[in-house]
Design brief:
This protein is mostly beta strands and 634 residues long. The chain folds into five domains: 84 residues, Immunoglobulins (Immunoglobulin-like, Sandwich); 74 residues, Immunoglobulins (Immunoglobulin-like), CATH 2.60.40.10; 82 residues, Immunoglobulin-like; 94 residues, Immunoglobulin-like (Sandwich); 247 residues, paralog of FGE (formylglycine-generating enzyme). Helices cover 10% and strands 35% of the residues. It has five helices and 48 strands. Strands 10, 12, 13, 15, 16 and 17 form a six-stranded mixed beta sheet that branches. Strands 19, 22, 23, 25, 26 and 27 form a six-stranded mixed beta sheet that branches. A five-stranded mixed beta sheet has the order 2-8-7-4-5, with no helix packed on it. InterPro entries: CTDL_fold (IPR016187), SbsA_Ig (IPR032812), Sulfatase_Mod_Factor_Kinase (IPR051043), SUMF_dom (IPR005532), SUMF_sf (IPR042095). Keywords: Signal. This is Formylglycine-generating enzyme, required for sulfatase activity, contains SUMF1/FGE domain.
């Protein structure tokens, strides 16, 4: 039994190892002999590396190969060297045997200093993506290079010997095979432009040798893409070269017809007219013998552009020039003088535009142009401080239309300023003159200290932003009429709005009622509307100068009657819910008005009466007053 057990173990081992070997041997169906190159330099360093691949009948490489059964023969002699080197000219026959499989090849080492060369079917190619160049390789004897060659174009390996491109420019071609590298070949990819289209920036030019007409040339390249062309030549109708520059000047009046030439192609014709320069003259100037504020810029508008305005404009006080900076607005053709210091109050100034100033047409004034103006300081707007507080908002009498009710508690948690009177014409006119806007129509009733009328809601915020700028405050509104904070961000937190603005609805009613000094009156400061305001029964159908009736408890005038006052808030119905620092509904197409006007019946001038209108409405009944949040000191 002992011997039988040993024989069983031996047979098991033989079956295990023998079967495994027999399986690999059975699976091996093909063998490939692989080398990195067939020719190498006979310098003792260049190498030819031998590798192999044994596969089953499905072409899958076998991994469990008994390398003892693998025989490598070099020139018929067994060898273990799978890397060949040689210092002599020599040919090696390589044979690899595995089981019944056999693979053979030949390689050689050469000492001769042969060169790898490239040849190109042509050296210029149209960059249209279809024109092509064939790249080939030979040795220095012109024989085909048989070893593996890799091509590089501009340093990047390419997989084909056919070159085409849509990009113009110079390309460098190099071939490499083992340690051999060819000299560089050069390929030029060129463009072809047609459909040339010549344009000019204008069709008229002054015949002064200075004014320019500038041309641009475009065309389509070989790929159908639009191209801007710079290096073109301008030629006349006879084909004579006129200019290699894209800009032309002339001193001779007349009509000219030219076209562009570019690499044998011609563009369309352009006709332009060269005119005699017009005379240099003053169109308008500001101010015109009237009082202005102390920070006014002096402006002179000319009939043509100015080429040289340095030292061309001066302002004289008592015959001596004042300091300041001259600027020029090309769009309006206007010179501006910005005084270095505020102008002196109640003084006469003389403005002199010197004849030395040069226009773009090289003309000059025949004589100095002068005018005078007188200065007064800008009139300030009086305001009243309203301390924070709370009150009942809305109609408590039940006699007004439902839009003015129900009542609700309102809280204002900050101090603010409000205009002592509505904004008057004399103040608003300073804004229109400063901004070069038309004067607002006063309906023939007079200006000065009458409340300004005929304003839309948007007109008022233009004035308020201007006023903020004059007092070095950030604007309160953006161009769409949204409230903005000191950083220019939209906000509904009125305490963050630092510039001048319209009062909110709760600010207006609280101030009209006298704020924390309030007495229960129907109108602003009295139960007798005739004592405090102008309305339909006493106004004779027109506005009146402000502050001619009694003020309320805070010293504020004209909050009942005279003109309806635009309010900051969008229109919305009262909810009966308490309001804290409210700026009204977030959205809405209408704006609130308060106070009534010279044309209103008595009930409409009550402090709690509300009305609404489109912010684009303007009429003789509508004006406004200013407000501003007082920044808290922290």
């Amino acid at each position: 039994m002992k011997y039988i057990r040993k024989i069983g173990i031996i047979l098991s081992l033989l079956i295990l190892f023998g079967f495994s070997y027999g399986q690999d041997d059975f699976k091996a169906k093909s063998m490939k002999l692989m080398i990195n190159k067939t020719t190498a330099l006979a310098d003792g360093q260049d190498e030819i590396k031998i590798t192999y691949r044994i596969e089953d009948d499905n072409g899958v490489p076998l991994r469990n190969i008994d390398k003892k059964e693998l025989n490598l023969l070099i020139n018929g002699v067994e060898s273990n060297e799978f890397v060949l080197r040689s210092s002599e000219n020599k040919t090696f026959e390589i044979t690899l045997i595995y089981g019944g499989l056999r693979a053979e090849t030949k390689v050689k080492f050469v000492k001769e200093n042969k060169k790898l060369r490239i040849y190109l079917s042509k050296t210029r190619i149209l960059a249209d993506g279809t024109d092509e160049i064939i790249i080939g390789t030979t040795d220095d004897q012109g024989n085909k290079w048989n070893d593996r060659v890799t091509l590089y174009i501009d340093g990047e390996e390419v997989s084909t010997n056919v070159f085409k491109t849509k990009k113009t420019g110079e390309y460098t071609v190099v071939a490499r095979s083992g340690k051999f590298e060819s000299e560089k070949g050069k390929i030029t990819a060129y463009e072809k432009i047609n459909a040339l289209n010549l344009k000019s920036d204008k069709v008229k030019v002054l015949a002064n040798g200075v004014d320019k007409i500038t041309f641009t040339l475009e065309g389509k390249d070989q790929n159908g893409l639009n191209r801007k062309i710079n290096d073109f030549i301008l030629v006349d109708i006879q084909g004579k070269n006129i200019s290699e520059s894209a800009a032309l000047t002339t001193k001779n009046p007349g009509n000219y017809k030219i076209r562009a030439a570019y690499k044998g192609e011609y563009s369309n014709y352009i006709t332009y007219n060269s005119e005699e320069p017009k005379k240099f003259s003053v169109v308008s100037y500001y101010p015109v013998k009237e009082t202005i504020n102390l920070n006014t810029e002096i402006e002179v508008e000319l009939n043509t552009e100015v080429k040289d305005y340095r030292n061309g404009l001066e302002i004289l006080l008592n015959g001596k020039p004042i300091q300041g900076m001259i600027t020029y607005d090309k769009n309006s053709k206007s010179l501006h003088f910005i005084p270095a210091h505020p102008l002196k109050l109640n003084s006469k100034y003389k403005v002199r535009l010197k004849k030395s100033i040069v226009g773009i047409d090289e003309n000059k004034l025949k004589n100095d142009f002068t005018f005078e103006f007188e200065t007064v300081s800008r009139k300030d707007i009086d305001t009243v401080k309203v301390e924070r507080g709370s009150f009942i908002l809305g109609d408590q009498t039940g006699q007004l239309w439902k839009f003015s009710s129900p009542v609700q508690d309102a809280f204002i948690e900050y101090d603010y300023l409000i205009g002592k009177t509505p904004v008057t014409f004399d103040i608003y006119d300073q804004y229109t003159r400063d901004m070069k806007l038309p004067l607002v129509d006063d309906n023939g009733w007079g200006r000065k200290t009458r409340p300004v009328i005929n304003l839309t809601w948007f007109d008022t915020i233009g004035f308020l932003n201007w006023l903020s700028q004059k007092e070095n405050l950030p604007p309160a509104y953006d161009s769409d009429g949204n409230l903005i904070d000191s950083h220019g961000n939209k906000t509904r937190d009125i305490t963050k709005v630092m510039g001048y603005r319209l009062p909110t609805e709760i600010e207006w009613e609280f101030a009209g009622k006298g704020g924390v000094r309030s007495k229960p009156t129907l109108f602003s400061g009295s139960n007798d509307v005739g004592a405090v305001g102008w309305y339909s029964e006493n106004s004779k159908g027109k506005t009146h100068e402000v502050a001619t009736k009694m003020p309320n408890e805070l010293g504020i005038y004209d909050m009942s009657g005279n003109v309806w006052e635009w309010i900051n808030d969008n229109s919305g119905v009262y909810s009966g819910i308490e309001r804290i620092n409210s700026v009204g509904p977030k959205n809405g197409s209408l704006k609130i008005l308060r106070g009534g006007s010279f044309n209103s019946i008595m009930s409409d001038t009550q402090l709690t009466f509300r009305d609404e209108l489109s912010p684009n409405t303007k009429d003789i009944y509508y004006g406004f007053r200013i407000a501003r949040t007082i920044r808290e000191e922290r």
